[in-house]
Write a structure and sequence with these properties.
Blueprint lengths: L1 E2 L6 E5 L13 H4 L4 E5 L26 H13 L6 E6 L1 H12 L4 E7 L11 H8 L8 H8 L1 H8 L3 E3 L2 E3 L4 H11 L5 H5 L5 E6 L8 H7 L4 E6 L6 H4 L1 H15 L2
Parallel strand pairs: 2-3, 2-4, 4-5, 5-8, 8-9
Antiparallel strand pairs: 1-3, 6-7
């Protein structure tokens, strides 16, 4: 857990898959105007997975974990730092962890922002996606190479996450771990978790979303205190793709829930 400064209501920022706490740095200054901001590196993203998640069975995956395990790990960090109800803002995987945390520990969360993630990805597989990542030409020798390969938006996202060593920029985690994390999402849904969330919620969806069609709208339909907004021109990285529109929606939400 990283203390990013500010004062007042705690605001916890949760990054997406293959992201890191640093991927929020462009949002920190204006978020500090609303509260005391914290960021967090999920397990497997620049810090090791807990040892008790490891499996030693021949032929089995090297680790066994679930979204609930990631949330329990997060909860353990929160308890040592934050002692009052907070606002949770999560992108993608971080949004899923945020809503699952809220469902499991409603006393900890006063409001929730979920960015471009939905409760049900069943039937999808991460195999092709993981193969593409494995083929990336790592290490990237410098920042320019990362930006050229990924483009200005995704490139900046990965520059804020990759490990920078003597030979250049590399992933800050294992492809197999990232694959296993996303593979779970193709085997189950999180509608039950979402349906017990009662705090005010802002649901931000990119126009060019990765989420299954209609699910974020349905999330708002079943939650009387949720607002669904589609951000024009944005892809999955809404807060980086359309930062002004993202900021305007989140600021409006925070003004309403922090009165």
């Amino acid at each position: 857990m990283y203390d990013e400064g500010g004062s007042g209501v705690p605001i916890l920022l949760l990054h997406g898959l293959m992201g890191s706490a640093r991927t929020w740095r462009s949002q920190l200054d204006w978020l500090r105007e609303f509260g005391h901001v914290y960021t967090f590196d999920a397990a497997g993203h620049g810090r090791p997975l807990p040892e008790h998640w490891r499996t030693d069975s021949p032929g089995a995956a090297p680790y066994r974990f679930s979204t609930e395990d990631f949330v329990a790990d997060l909860h353990g960090q929160i308890r040592t730092v934050i002692d009052e109800p907070m606002v949770v803002i999560g992108h993608s995987m971080g949004g899923l962890h945020g809503l699952t945390l809220t469902a499991a520990h409603p006393e900890l969360v006063r409001a929730l922002v979920v960015e471009d993630i939905a409760p049900d990805f069943r039937g999808r597989t991460a195999d092709d996606w993981a193969a593409v990542i494995s083929a990336w030409p790592q290490p990237f020798p410098d920042e320019a190479a990362v930006l050229e390969f990924f483009g200005p938006v995704a490139g900046r996202y990965f520059l804020d996450s990759f490990v920078h060593g003597p030979d250049g920029y590399r992933l800050h985690g294992e492809v197999e771990i990232f694959r296993l994390i996303s593979e779970e999402w193709g085997s189950r849904d999180f509608w039950d978790e979402w349906k017990v969330v009662t705090v005010p919620a802002l649901l931000l969806e990119g126009e060019y979303t990765i989420t299954p069609p209609g699910q974020m709208a349905e999330m708002a339909r079943v939650h009387p205190m949720a607002r669904h907004v589609v951000i024009s021109g944005a892809g999955h990285l809404v807060h980086d793709d359309q930062p002004a529109a993202y900021r305007a929606e989140v600021e409006d939400f925070l003004r309403r829930v922090l009165v």
